[in-house]
Amino acid sequence: MTGAVRILIRFDTEDILTPASDDAACRLAELLTRHGVRATFPITAMKVDALFQRGRQDVFRALSRHQVGFHSTSHSLHPTIAEELAQLSGAEAAARFREREEAGFRRVADAFGEAPQVYTQPGGNWTAEAIPALAAWGVKLFYSEDWNGYLDIQGRPMLLAGLHHWAAPVRAPKPFLNRLPGILDEAVATARAAIDEAAGAGQLGLVNVVSHPTELVSERFWDLVPFGGGQNQPEASWESAPQRPRQAVEAALDAFSAWLLSLRQMAEDVEFWTGEDLVAAFPDRAVGLTVKAEAQVALLRLVSGGRLGSVAVGEATLTAAEVLGVAVQAVRAIQGGTFPRPLPVRSLAPPWDESEADTGRQADEIPGPVLVEALGQLASALDQGQLPAAVAAAGELWSPLAVAAGGARAALQVLRAGALPDRVPLPRVALTSRRFVKPAEALHWDWPIFAPGFEAPALRRRAEAATWCLKPAEAELADDRIGAGA
Ligand SMILES: [Zn+2]
Questions:
Q1: Which of 40, 55, 4, 200 is nearest to 117 (CA)?
Q2: Count of structural domains, the chain
Q3: N or C: fewer beta carbons within 10 Å in the chain?
Q4: pTM over cut 0.70
Q5: Which CATH number belongs to the domain containing residue 268 in this structure?
Q6: pLDDT at residue 201, rounded to an integer
Q7: Whether residues 475 and 361 fall in one domain
């Protein structure tokens, strides 16, 4: 794809208080359609309700020419998603997301006659615990951006617990539309720099543009006064943000049109992609994959070292959890005398309730019978589709990675010497995928809708646990590679 540039334009559509923002969404969607551009319009359920109340069928029609996504039920109303989930255990948080968001998701699906396949988190409410519900509803892409996402993934498409995940720097001024036409030159220059970079050799060619229809018509952001600082103001006092004069809105639309036209001319091969196009371009090649014996042995060698991240197996990339799942099956097959046979890659849920104590657990060695017991426990948890936070055996808690590493060492020895050793030395274990989670100080817990001083360490910890199930969509970016053999 060298030289090709794919621009993804996204308009988060969420302002329930400003009737003029309905017109803005409609006119932007129609303008994009006139230019032959499909964009992504993630919308909130409350915005859908507001459009029905205001009789705006024209907005539904205009948006349905683009990809419509789900942008939460209530966006900035407290408690927001992060405010609520941060107070719960991991498993409770995953269940709570589904309870609070499912009806809203269905309202968006019903309004457009199609279930959204894209989810964008509102503001700073990035939560890995959203993923099980999103996957169950058929969402394919968790579409974030560099500012509010918890993962530092440098704009590369990733797969996270069965969903595509993308977060790239936003290559448009922020805010954008409400400073047009004045900042048109700046916006063009920003896009030009992004496109030149994207078209460069070895680059993926993806350019991320995110804005909000409401910006076109408002002087300041819609949710700041009614919901800012961690509090809902009384509903009777909610009002729209100050409006821009009509002429300024028209001039801004013309400038947006000019900006759009100029993008096409900036490189030879420019395409506009929706979230759906991104998903289609980077399929998860591990789905349905079976791993042959030779590759299983290579994976066992890798796991036996104790440091695990994503691994490329031929064209496919496996998450650390998927590798661990294959390795444990291979160990059991070697123990049980059914090796060699091809083994499936299974999808696994992350250990939501992994605690810092569990992840840091290290042991020097494990007695053979304890290892066998721990492997049995781990295998039955994996059979349920769940990577456990810890494995209980002989009255102690063991890290699943330590158990798998010990199992891999024992199994390799069985293949060489034919007998399970009495004691198996354990390596220091580390899930290297954790490095993708931003440090707490880089997370935007300062989203102005949160209360001052808001912090959500539990969400960050669970983002780390979720990286068990994180892998780059491009196999060449995996942390390790074993020969094809799959
Ligand atoms: Zn939003």
A1: 40
A2: 2
A3: N
A4: yes
A5: 3.20.20.370
A6: 74
A7: yes
